[in-house]
Amino acid sequence: MAAKPDTINWHSRVSNLAIRGQAFIDGRYVDAASGATFDSINPATGKLLAKIASCDQTDVERAVANARKEFEQGSWSRLAPRQRKQTLLRFADLIRKNAEELALLESLDMGKPVSDALGVDMSAAANCIQWFAEAVDKIYDQVAPTGDAALALITREPVGVVAAIVPWNFPLLMASWKLGPALAAGNSIVLKPSEKSPLTAIRAAELAVEAGIPAGVLNVLPGLGATAGKALALHMDVDCVAFTGSTRTGKMMLEYSGQSNMKRVWLECGGKSPNILLADCPDVERAATAAAYGIFFNQGEMCSAGSRLIIHESLKDRVLERIAEVGRSMAPGDPLDPKTRLGAMVDRAQLDTVLRYIDTGRREGARIAFGGEQVRQESGGYFVQPTIFDGVKQSMTIAREEIFGPVLSTITFRQTAEAVAIANDVSYGLAAAVWTRDITTGHRVARALRAGTVYVNCYDADDITVPFGGFKQSGNGRDKSLHAFDKYTELKTTWIDLSGP
């Protein structure tokens, strides 16, 4: 059981922290074949954390070959589901036992508050692995209703070698969303963490082997997207790519599949999620607070962030006042201080991207109602204030493009139909929300919103039992819930003729 974040002196633990920067292939840590490395930078200080193996085509070949060998040998793929379950339960327990180390690695690597890394990310990652472990021996195959002349069996089989390419904003949690169902189903995996935050994935691979997952079943390849990621997506012996990241890169994954072996490609590609407050919002204070956390949590580096506040004009002033109040309480601070609620942007490039969008919003005529500045520059880190834009038009860049930072665009409306039209007028469809006192209105608006998840009178509610994924250019397929098994299994029909003598 991890300690409470505020009882730990996190800075004192840094000096004793062992940071691994190698790849993990066939059950052991190895350097990149080329010997090349890249720098992992602490986004809170701008200083070097570690040198990380920069894997390329040669490393991909080795990792995929080992994954394929283990899959064909059946050391994991043909293990009874209850045996895979027990191993994955041990893996989940090891994540919990090492949660403080993993949380510290994640905070140093990605810039999020260590209290969130421990209390949210590590807990949810372990729970995800546990949930899929417990589910796998409770899923039954089917017998088709063919009649007496035949017996038709419909069975699920693991798809084979899965390339899991995960983002930097929730490094271990997003990896667990892939690892849980893919491993439970019996696949072998090559995991490529983002080059911006690879440390927890590298460490977790060792824990997986300690739990009893056979060497070669889970391989971790740190490296750049343009080299390791591309090589994985093009590899002829990879059966499935499970990707979370930008829409631009997701489209490239689809192209790579077509250029190679038509491997299955499952995408979760971000969003520009609308949060609609109707005039009859049942609790304005609660809705405003939820809107603030829906955009400021994790520095706004969330694919499902409620980045567009679509608000009835009669509520705007009260709501913005409350969101600004929450923003003031979330002033960016040292991620290793347990009291910090808003950490650093993941790197200089992301900080520059967010600041560029803020400048664009100003230039296009939106008004900054709160924040909008880079702060804590003396630290050497990459910090930006929570930012609220007022007077935003749906045609503006900040209302249409994913910023991936703590920047809220406020758009007013008068009629409910207008709010729905604004909400759907983007290329994304990951999440949405509506606040209303009328349950009929809530149902009708939820049905009209083109999004994979619609929250009614809440925002960012979550449970491993419900699917997560998007419509439109937010991607395809679903993480979490039993639906995730659809991505990592093949359906096979076995037809037995019983009509003979």
Supply the key terms.
single chain; 501 residues; alpha/beta; 7-stranded mixed beta sheet; 15 helices; globular
Question: What can you see in these coordinates?
Answer:
The protein is an alpha/beta fold and 501 residues long. Helices cover 38% and strands 21% of the residues. It has helices at 10-14, 57-73, 81-97, 99-110, 114-136, 171-184, 199-211, 225-234, 247-259, 284-296, 316-329, 348-363, 397-400, 416-424, 439-448; strands at 23-25, 28-30, 37-42, 47-53, 142-143, 150-158, 161-165, 188-192, 218-220, 240-244, 264-268, 274-277, 308-312, 367-370, 374-375, 383-384, 387-390, 407-413, 428-429, 431-435, 453-456, 471-472, 489-497. A seven-stranded mixed beta sheet has the order 14-17-18-13-12-20-21, sandwiched between helices. Strands 9-8-7-10-11 form a five-stranded parallel beta sheet, sandwiched between helices. α13 (397-400) links the parallel β17 and β18 (407-413). α2 packs parallel to α8, α3 (81-97) crosses α7 and α10 (284-296) crosses α11. It is globular. The N and C termini lie far apart (63 Å). The mean pLDDT is 97.
Task: Produce a short descriptive summary.
By secondary structure, the chain is of the alpha/beta class.
Q: What is the total tally of β strands?
A: 23
Structural class: alpha/beta
If you average the pLDDT, what whole number results? 97
Rg to the nearest angstrom? 23 Å
Distance from first to last alpha carbon: 63 Å
**Percent of residues in helical segments?**
25-40%
Global shape: globular
- Order of strands, widest sheet: 14-17-18-13-12-20-21
